[in-house]
Amino acid sequence: MQEIDLRSDTVTRPTKEMLQAMMTAKVGDDVYKEDPTINALEEKLAKMFGKDEALFFPTGSMANQAAIKLHTQPGEQLICDKWAHVYNYEGGGVSFNSGVSCKLVDGDRGMIKAEQVVENINPPDFYHSPLTTLVCLENTTNKGGGACYDLEDIKEIRKVCDEHQLGLHLDGARLFNALVKKKENPKDFGKLFDTISVCLSKGLGTPMGSVLIGDKKLMKNAIRVRKVLGGGMRQVGFMAAAGIYALDHHFDRLAEDHRRAFEIEEVLKTLHYIGKVENVETNIIIFNLREAEKEKEFTEYLQKHNIRISNMGQGKWRIVTHLDYSEEMHQRFQEVLKNASL
Ligand SMILES: *Cc1c(COP(=O)(O)O)cnc(C)c1O
Q: Could you identify which of 199, 204, 255, 335 might form a hypothetical disulfide with 173, taking C-beta atoms 3.0 to 4.6 angstroms apart as the criterion?
């Protein structure tokens, strides 16, 4: 029985065609900026978002951490949602790498509003408190269950940032999911944000790689910061080839992951042993069991059927649909859910 792994959209393996694109890539030493495939990927993404420059990073965490470093000085403060990846899941890098603290906002499914940003800006002439210099948003939200911002809400936040001279960074690890779902234009995001990080290794299905996109003035130092963080790599064009292939072939199909996530949501809602199911917007489904004591039984039942999902703690479970989750697996998974006698 084939394993069904729905813990994350990072568990995918490169397809045969993607491997083919990687194997035939022209490469060079990217620390000398001489890898033609990396340069092509960076140019492609900069153009896609209407920005001057883009820089390849090994991970999304490093791309976010570099962005925070570019926007801030030690002792300063950034504003983000309490569920933000930059605060919760990057090993404390905000303080470790940049000496910056986070002012946490109590948002809705990981999304914050312009009024909340205003309320959390420390008055710049009150020298007792850390100086607020950056706002970090996440789209789609991870812990918020794949929720997507309304562009109008981001425009309001941009206005606040302009009025208060704050930088605005987007953790766009799953921005491609939002773009497909809401049929948005990446250039609109390029206009609103100073920097954007995107992951190629989530929904797009490459083995590794993230890209930080921004304008010249800020990005001037990005390559130095990447070097300091240990992220300067040599013949990494093999990975860029996977990224280019994925942008060309795996972008539109994200809609399929979204459809399957909605179908799973619909099934979950009909099951007596399932409690709350968060509203599904893209490829992430977050839910609770009706009876928390049944966690172990539920895990064992899924294990028996060779199915893996994430237990996020505090009663929350997470399912993420992705490239390697086929239609056949989708049918089997739904049957297994329906047949549980918990
Ligand atoms: C996955 C993810 C990242 C990057 O994580 P890495 O494991 O470092 O690639 C950043 N932000 C969000 C919201 C994510 O889901």
A: 199
Whether 60 lines ligand 1, by a CB cut-off of 6 Å, is yes
For residue 173 and ligand 1, the question of a CB distance below 6 A is answered with yes
With a 6 Å cutoff on the Cβ, whether 76 touches ligand 1 is: no
Tell me, in angstroms, the distance from the centre of ligand 1 to residue 173's CA. 6
Closest ligand 1 atom, residue 210 Cα: 9
pTM above threshold 0.90: yes
Q: Which residues of 293-322 are buried (b: 16+ CB within 10 A; e: fewer)?
A: eeeeebeebbeebebebeeeeeebbbbbbb
Closest residue by CA, ligand 1 atom 5? 60
Give tens-digit pLDDT for 202-259.
Answer: 999 999 999 999 999 999 999 999 999 999 999 999 999 999 999 999 999 999 999 9
Name the region of 146 (left: φ>0; alpha: ψ -120 to 50; beta: rest): left
Find out whether 171 and 63 touch, Cβ atoms under 8 Å.
Answer: no
> Which protein residue's CA is at the shortest distance from atom 6 of ligand 1?
60
